[in-house]
Amino acid sequence: QLQLQESGPGLVKPSETLSLTCTVSGGSISSSSYYWGWIRQPPGKGLEWIGSIYYSGSTYYNPSLKSRVTISVDTSKNQFSLKLSSVTAADTAVYYCARRAGPYDYWGQGTLVTVSS
Amino acid sequence: EIVLTQSPDFQSVTPKEKVTITCRASQSIGSSLHWYQQKPDQSPKLLIKYASQSFSGVPSRFSGSGSGTDFTLTINSLEAEDAATYYCHQSSSLPDTFGQGTKLEIK
Fold it and tell me: Which residues of B fall within a CB distance of 8 Å from A46?
């Protein structure tokens, strides 16, 4: 059974960079059939797509976040990562990683990241 | 960017009732529309993919229909465990977008 697990700091200071890693187990991140994505959800609000990456390193970002987002992949560790720079309180959210097979069919449990000094 | 608009935003229903949630896209997306269920403090779970295909392990009371710009999620014979927020999502063109969500309350 495929599993995804987010990890990273739960508290980030304003203007700093948020960094999260998603570890994939039970399957290979190098599968040619899937992209791997990051999605976030501010407290009490809906879902927002951040971006996606292919195992080859091809990336696609939400235009609203593109200037601040970097997604990378490490196939040797079966991981992909998110960096979001210059964070503000508006970036406080639960961050999910997920497998994109068209739909997002497998999701991590999510990790809450709070931006606060 | 394709905007997805769900209706209603909130619905209070009784067990065994039939529920219909709609999702309208701002432009045609073919059948690239997917439905998720999210319970409090849980990650979203895929219910229906490509408008009408049930995802593995999803109860048969959940079904989807539609194409182009108008889509429907139907829950037949609602159960108490179906209390959740439901989201649609389009993968027709980037950026991926989600509907605003429909919260289902069980009376």
Answer: 87, 98-101
Mutate to test the interface with A, among B43, B45, B102 (most CBs of A within 10 A): B43
CB contact under 8 A, A62 and B34: no
CA distance A33 to A54: 9
Give me the sheet containing A69-74, strands edge to edge: A3-7, A18-25, A79-84, A69-74
Of B32, B91, B100, the CB nearest to A46: B100
Task: Give the pLDDT confidence of B53-93 residue by residue, as tens digits.
Answer: 999 999 999 999 999 999 999 999 999 999 999 999 999 99
Of B1, B45, B49, nearest to A102 by CB-CB distance is B49
Instruction: Render pLDDT for A46-93 as a digit per residue (tens, 0 to 9).
Output: 999 999 999 999 999 999 999 999 999 999 999 999 999 999 999 999
Do residues A103 and B91 lie in contact, with contact meaning Cβ atoms separated by under 8 Å? yes
Taking an 8 Å cut-off on Cβ atoms, the answer to whether A52 and B96 are in contact is: yes
Cβ(B47)–Cβ(B39) under 8 Å? no
Mean pLDDT, range B34-53, rounded to an integer: 98
Q: Please name which of B96, B32, B14, B30 lies closest in space to residue A96, comparing C-alpha atoms.
A: B96
Give the number of other Cβ atoms within 10 Å of residue A69's Cβ.
Answer: 18
Taken in order B80, B85, B91, B92, the sign of the CA dihedral is: positive
